[in-house]
Sequence to fold (307 residues):
Amino acid sequence: MIDLRRLTALRAIARYGTVTAAAASLHLTPSAASQQMRQLSRDVGAPLLEPYGRRVRLTPAAWVLLRHAERMEDYWQQAEAELATTRSAALSGTLRLAGFPTAVSILLAPVAAQLQHVSPTLTVEVREAEPADCFDLLFSGDTDLAVVEATADNPPLSDAAFAQHPLFDDPFELLTCVNHPLVGRPSVAFHDLAEESWVVGFPGDSARQLILAACNSVGFSPAIAHQAREWSAVASLVANGLGIALIPATAALPPHPQLIRTSLAGSVRPVRQFVRVVRSGSDRHPAISAVASLLDGLAAEHEDRAG
Fold:
């Protein structure tokens, strides 16, 4: 009989590409992960890994087994969800949530507080994590639900390990100092920003990618004067007249008399999307279903405010 833990090791190697990375994701030593794969090979009577340069790759037999392993994981998550409904009408146990900083601030923190108020037997743990780390935490079983920003680097919607559900779109706004010539307009068209000096994030930052793509779509490349990672640092640079910036509508900034936020007009308007993610098959778990419902409600409120 095949041990499901060995199938988990196979799934991790397929996802991360090396035994070492797979072992780390599962909190195992590389030797323990290798041992599980050797035993799994004996269980199915076929080699599952073969050397490929400095890495390993799955054999044809492993790919066949992997397809079934993904389905079995989905079924197991469904079974755990159904079992949870039989234990008690009250939500109990521990629910672990993860998300990037803005998601924690505007979604996960209020949802966690509400859940613990109405379900005192349920412990809710919130963890700040970047989107890529959120998917790793879900895969390893270290979190139960995550709110991430949709990016090109995320696993595709077709990835059988995850169920992804859009929450709401968060449009970007123009941020200027109070004496900027564009201040006072009800909205600003994107092409009016072509001659400005810009404050943007570092290369690889998702917001920077969205902003540069929007600039390119209207035919200009922004003159980048300064780069900063945190929104508060971006705001400080803008407040001191060192450039303009685009920031998401939900980005919280400290009150500052020298800062003005203005809506963008027209069809070119960068937008980031919030997405909630769970392991496939787990969405019917009572606690996960409860938090998903609360998140959808909050997301609808943000969508309404964004217009």
User: Anything to note?
Assistant: The chain is about 45% helix and 25% strand. The chain has a mean pLDDT of 90. The first helix runs from residue 4 to 16.
